[in-house]
Amino acid sequence: EVQLVESGGGLVQPGGSLRLSCAASGFTLSSYAMSWVRQAPGKGREWISGINTGGVGTSYADSVKGRFTISRDIAKNSLYLQMNSLKPEDTAVYYCAKYKFEAVTTVLSTLYLYDYWGQGTQVTVSS
Fold this sequence. Notes:
The chain is an all-beta fold and 127 residues long.
């Protein structure tokens, strides 16, 4: 059974940092592209970052480029999101998501292409 469990969210001041983790089970992380998606209060889900099957191809939404870094640890079957220079507008529930198909070299931001999602972790950026 595929499971994704996020952790690492919390309350942080503007300009601060957080590192989110996503523990994956039931599949091999190295075989699938993965992404982070967030949902702010009253808004739809927004794709923010992805990593391809090879692990070296990454992409970011303009809203987080230069501040967030996606990575993974194959040995731990885990995905990460390092978030720096956080802003109040980064406040959202953050989800990790597994791409539906194997061996993807180009990460796509189309949400319906992701078949499994975690339960989410809340990130609140406020002074």
